[in-house]
Amino acid sequence: MGWFWADSAPAAPVAPHPMPRGDATPPPSCPMHNKLPHRPSKASTPDAVPAGACPYVPPDSSTSAAPPQQGLLSRLNPLNNMPFDLSNKRETPHQTHDLPLTREPSTIPKGDGSLWEYPSPQQMYNAMLRKGYTDTPADAVESMVAVHNFLNEGAWAEIVGWERRFARGLVEGYRVCKRGEENANIALGMQDPLDTRWTEKNIPAPKLLRFTGRPGEATPKSQMLQLLGWAWPSKFGTPPPFDRHDWFVQRCDAAGNCEEVRYVIDYYEGEPEPTGEPVFYLDVRPAIDGPRAAAERLVRWGTDTWWTASGGVVREVRKAEEARKKAEEERERTMRKYNS
């Protein structure tokens, strides 16, 4: 999930996980296999390597500069941890199905204001081959790309929902959230919770700066849910998430001050529809990197739980019923006065 593409080359490539490197063992004829009685001095080092000798010459640490990085890490884009040189054409003769080469733009803004682009089906297939998924049927890749793009759009919609609530601070976030999720969406003017349009006039829209996939690292929340599922399978039993992402989002205030907020996303697969269509669930929330993120999660989830447990919905229904009766009584009085 989350294989966007970024086109600009970084100044200092990095990757979140150690990457395997090739076998750096020198050939047996190299002198580094033999223990030397002493390190040869600079003066005794020959100016040229004799013909037929081992090409390895130990560098002089006092004068030699570190060679430029030429490994796998130098070819990875730090914005998405994917290779810069991943081609958009067939890389294997075993591919039996022609795949589209067009790339679909997302609705997710990058740090420079442009939009992230999703990989083409051919790029997705090439990426899966490089990751070792050689048993993937080529004719299924287009459907996989469609699901991949849909999930990323849903994840961004969830993030925008968090930003709408808390971009103006915790106090404003509490004011929006205190009457539960449904009323919060009404207060924010969100008829569709998946609408990613940014309507705040005085606050810049959030941007996705970079992201990384961490499928092998379970989040603390998912681990707790698995423990609860083991203890109470009838209530909390659910398979573990099949993927996990960290998205780094730029949040700015009305004064133009910006900060980076890390969001954690767990991807769950649910029971398929009767028609066979797959069902997915996303758990999107700010990572607890500080007190503010913890407070945001407490405010949003705590107020919704309290509103429901304390009968907030019942109170809203009762108020609406009283207002309706009052309006009817006023209308009847008006009609009697008019008829008399």
From TrEMBL:
<keyword id="KW-0999">Mitochondrion inner membrane</keyword>
<comment type="function">
    <text>Lyase that catalyzes the covalent linking of the heme group to the cytochrome C apoprotein to produce the mature functional cytochrome.</text>
</comment>
<keyword id="KW-0479">Metal-binding</keyword>
<dbReference type="GO" id="GO:0004408">
    <property type="term" value="F:holocytochrome-c synthase activity"/>
</dbReference>
<dbReference type="Pfam" id="PF01265">
    <property type="entry name" value="Cyto_heme_lyase"/>
</dbReference>
<feature type="region of interest" description="Disordered">
    <location>
        <begin position="1"/>
        <end position="77"/>
    </location>
</feature>
<feature type="region of interest" description="Disordered">
    <location>
        <begin position="89"/>
        <end position="115"/>
    </location>
</feature>
<dbReference type="GO" id="GO:0046872">
    <property type="term" value="F:metal ion binding"/>
</dbReference>
<keyword id="KW-0496">Mitochondrion</keyword>
<protein>
    <recommendedName>
        <fullName>Holocytochrome c-type synthase</fullName>
        <ecNumber>4.4.1.17</ecNumber>
    </recommendedName>
</protein>
<feature type="compositionally biased region" description="Basic and acidic residues">
    <location>
        <begin position="89"/>
        <end position="101"/>
    </location>
</feature>
<feature type="compositionally biased region" description="Low complexity">
    <location>
        <begin position="1"/>
        <end position="12"/>
    </location>
</feature>
<keyword id="KW-0408">Iron</keyword>
<dbReference type="GO" id="GO:0005743">
    <property type="term" value="C:mitochondrial inner membrane"/>
</dbReference>
<keyword id="KW-0456">Lyase</keyword>
<comment type="similarity">
    <text>Belongs to the cytochrome c-type heme lyase family.</text>
</comment>
<keyword id="KW-0349">Heme</keyword>
<feature type="compositionally biased region" description="Pro residues">
    <location>
        <begin position="13"/>
        <end position="30"/>
    </location>
</feature>
<dbReference type="InterPro" id="IPR000511">
    <property type="entry name" value="Holocyt_c/c1_synthase"/>
</dbReference>
<feature type="region of interest" description="Disordered">
    <location>
        <begin position="318"/>
        <end position="340"/>
    </location>
</feature>
<keyword id="KW-0472">Membrane</keyword>
